Amino acid sequence: MAAHIADTLAAGAGLNDPDAVRVLCTEAVRDIAGLQRFGVRFDAGPGGGPALGLEAAHSAARILHAGGDATGARITRALVASVLERAVLNPTGQGRLRVETGAFVTDLLTDRPEQGPTADSPRATGVAYLSNGQPRQLQADAVLLATGGAGRLFARTSNPSVATADGLALAWRAGAAVHDLEFFQFHPTTLAADEVPGGPPALLISEAVRGEGAVLLDAAGYRFMPDYHPDAELAPRDVVSRSIALHLAATGAPADSPVFLDARGIEAARGPGFLARRFPSITAATRAAGYDWTTQTLPVSPAAHYWMGGVSTDLWGRTSVPGLYAAGEVACTGAQGANRLASNSLLEGLVFGRRAVEAFLGGGLAGTSAPRKVPSHGTAAPRAVSAAGGLPDARFRSAIARLRRGRNSNGCPRWCCED
Ligand SMILES: Cc1cc2nc3c(=O)[nH]c(=O)nc-3n(C[C@H](O)[C@H](O)[C@H](O)COP(=O)(O)OP(=O)(O)OC[C@H]3O[C@@H](n4cnc5c(N)ncnc54)[C@H](O)[C@@H]3O)c2cc1C
Question: Cβ distance 280 to 70 under 8 Å?
């Protein structure tokens, strides 16, 4: 647990809220056990215990997964099934779950609708939404926003088409405080392909693939990450993404060029069929895109992936608007700091989502708002985690250019091999 806390703070560049990190890491075990009670089954290792994966910036293998690389889908499927078992589809059912699909929330209702974002926060009293195009309203004692992220604001993203920052806009219009909006994480390894506006997201090649030993090569076949960070391909995501940009700039390649993820060594080391067993979804998706990653490298590029910022909440999911809660990617608890540690997002939604519900049900905290300025992030200067300290300076650029002019005995540029 202490190591998980330390890793989360290190990846977050010291801009995390330490209390939120402590809650996240100490309460994770209990909430994961809760998931298992709702039918989520995590993959088991050879000895029968949980199979734990290593991901970037984690100092130990500690990531649970389900269905190989289908963890989110497996969790969602089990929880949806559990909700539907308890749902009362009759809208008049009192005190039970009512499920309404295809609803698009357009506004939060408040007790002072005439006041704009600059006024003192009114109280949230429900939502206005469209159902099959028809405007409807739902009055509520409390509203929990769980509308996800905003990757679709960027040209290249791993996020689904629904990640359009709706929750943040709804909360902002209702007068809620927001925080850390400038912190957006770029995942370094999504399959490079032409972007189709409004089309499918860029295919994510999970960090766990690098955790299993895949490396990043440039167009000349040179493994460049060790030049940028001691943890090489397992440096924090933002560092790897920035290193790719730096390396492309340093070697004179166009900024939107791909680099190459080489997983061939994994298959060679772990035996034929390992990649397909460990990463069935990625194997199928890359095959559909025309690649056999057991014998070929994959062209990859960074893409907008996760929003650390969002609607400010305290440790109980309360926003600055009484009656309005937020959890998951739309919320900013402060646990992620400037950069989320891999796989801490599902955990954050789980832990703080449960806390928000407890706060509401507990009554004592329901209806009250979090302090206006929440969370209180540390004032310490951010710890530098950038790759090579930022963009290459003129001296570095000219040294690289000099090296690039020569070729070694393998015919590669001199800077790419040891000779
Ligand atoms: C490809 C990919 C892989 C990932 N892998 C991992 C991983 O391995 N581990 C990890 O921890 N995290 C991972 N993440 C991040 C993690 O999946 C997300 O942070 C998390 O799913 C966010 O959950 P959420 O419940 O906050 O939002 P979401 O799961 O995005 O759900 C938001 C929901 O709100 C709905 N919604 C939005 N706007 C409105 C509106 N106006 N009206 C009504 N409904 C609305 C959406 O339709 C959607 O159903 C991954 C993300 C991606 C994209």
Answer: yes
Distance (Å) of CA 219 to CA 13, 161, 224, 260, 303: 31, 31, 11, 7, 19
In the chain, how many domains are there?
Answer: 2
The residues annotated as belonging to the active site are 237
Residues 293 and 399 in one domain: yes
The beta strand positions in 192-283, using DSSP E, are 215-217, 259-262
Q: 237-250 vs 394-405: helix axis angle to the nearest 10?
A: 60
Give me ligand 1 centre to Cα 343, in Å: 13
Residue nearest to atom 15 of ligand 1 (CA): 345
Q: Residues 290, 415: one domain? A: yes
> Is a pLDDT exceeding 90 seen at residue 113?
no
- Among candidates 323, 330, 331, which has minimal Cα distance to 374? 331
Give the Å distance between the CA of 308 and the centre of ligand 1: 13
CB distance 336 to ligand 1 below 6 Å: no
114 within domain boundaries: yes
What is the pLDDT confidence band of residue 315, given thresholds at 50, 70 and 90? very high
Of 76-85, 93-102, 287-296, the poorest mean pLDDT is in: 93-102
Residues 213 and 352 in one domain: no
Measured by CA distance, the residue closest to atom 48 of ligand 1 is 147
> Atom 21 of ligand 1 has which residue's CA nearest to it?
346
Q: What is the pLDDT of residues 376-403, one digit of tens each?
A: 444 444 444 444 444 444 444 444 444 4
Task: For residue 16, tell me if it sits in a domain.
Answer: no
79 occurs within a structural domain: no
**What is the value of pTM for the model shown?**
0.83
User: 149 C-alpha vs ligand 1 centroid, how far in Å?
Assistant: 6
Q: pLDDT (tens digit, 9 = 90+) per residue, 147-196?
A: 999 999 998 999 999 999 999 999 999 999 999 999 999 999 999 987 77
> Cβ(148) to ligand 1 under 6 A?
yes
Q: Name, in order, each residue with C-beta under 8 angstroms of 28's C-beta and a sequence gap of 6 or more.
A: 4, 347, 350, 351
Place of tokens 């995942």: 187
The range of the structural domain enclosing residue 253 comes to: 186-304+390-419
